[in-house]
Amino acid sequence: MYLYKATCPEIPNPKQKGSRNQGGGQGGVQAHGLGQGRLVGKTSMGTGTRPYPPLMLWTANKPNGVVELKQLEEFLNFHSLSLHDTVKSQTGMAYRNLGKSGLRVSCLGLGTWVTFGGQITDEVAEQLMTIAYESGVNLFDTAEVYAGGRAEIILGNIIKKKCWRRSSLVITTKLYWGGKAETERGLSRKHIIEGLKGSLQRMQLEYVDVVFANRPDSNTPMEEIVRAMTYVINQGMAMYWGTSRWTAMEIMEAYSVARQFNLIPPVCEQAEYHLFQREKVEVQLPELYHKIGVGAMTWSPLACGIITGKYENGIPESSRASMKSYQWLKEKIISEDGRKQQAKLKELNHIAEKLGCTLPQLAVAWCLRNEGVSSVLLGTSNPEQLTENLGAIQVLPKMTSHVVSEIDHILGNRPYSKKDYRS
Question: Any idea where the NADP-dependent oxidoreductase domain is (predicted)?
């Protein structure tokens, strides 16, 4: 494995004896007051200041966070600004770094799979995006394959209509299946470049923040994939790139190729993660995060609606499982394993009642309690569902180790590894 090592003599060694940072103290903050670190603020700084909610964290587990927060406040006061004017403070949304990159994403994002261009109307899609954005959500995810490209068109139309600042949004899309032609799918250099150009045209955007390889492609050499992703980033068509449905070994190979040829490695893996699907996110991805900085953006926190409890007495007509293209979901629900899952959900509902929340809110908060998860993508078909799921932010502080242990005991599926990086 090839690892990148800086050789520029001008780069200072922070561990060098006697070296001091420009900002002084332990904050590591440069003279202009911002520095390179993120900030932590669990309590207010100074008398008379409104205390920050428990989730108003600028970063997690940083011993010098309070120092950095104070220096940031001094910087803002100098420019007649305040932390209380930020979206974070006004909405209560929590933000996390995408992997070990500097990109800050809302811990809850809005996905467009099945819903946009399919299950819901364009008007409902606009309502959902508006509720999400006004609640502090900045991450919106789509893919070229969703509704044959229609999802990207709807997403782009809404962004244009609402006149939201592009700099306030994190837009992600995924490439692999762009059409019926042999050259319109896969991860060849041709399709990555042409596919992303097509996505940008449909969304009426100059760039996306993250472009994902929607699945691995055994027909394309890894070097070609990494070079193509590096190219679209260097061309300004994307800021970062990531993977989706890749194995840990494939992600590590991409990282090794990037370091070997001085290319750009992936920063994030999109993975399914919910109460009944845990192995990859809790065992494999934490190791990748600590070794190479690849974060986790998870999807389907409610297991395609199974965890909502709406399938307890059968398949509702308006549900996803009733759709012809989701026959596999219907079979999964009515199977023996599906019935066992419904029984466990009844037990989990008692925990939700004790915490004063709904079962979906408990399930989403359970995903968020894993600090290795950068963001959880929500997929909802109506405003009421979205508002309910966004309420998981208030449940997160209640996810104590005792509550998590109770949930693990009911599920009986906690994966174990030699190193447990979970929170």
Answer: 108-410
pLDDT band at 83 (very low <50, low <70, confident <90, very high): confident
Q: 235-265: string of b/e by CB count within 10 Å (b at 16+)?
A: eebbbbbbbbbbebebbbbbbbbbbeeebbb
- What is the dihedral angle through the alpha carbons of 99, 204, 301, 328, rounded to the nearest 10 degrees? -130
Residue pLDDT, tens place only, 204-262:
999 999 999 999 999 999 999 999 999 999 999 999 999 999 999 999 999 999 999 99
Catalytic residue, from 52, 133, 146, 255: name it.
146
Distance CA 266, CA 242 (A): 5
146 counts as catalytic: yes
- Do residues 105 and 375 make contact, with C-beta atoms less than 8 angstroms apart? yes
245 Cβ contact partners less than 8 Å away, ≥ 6 residues apart: 214, 215, 216, 270, 271
CA distance linking residue 360 with residue 81, whole number of Å? 37
**All domains in the chain, ordered by first residue:** 96-411 (3.20.20.100)
Q: Which two tokens stand for residue 378?
A: 């929500």
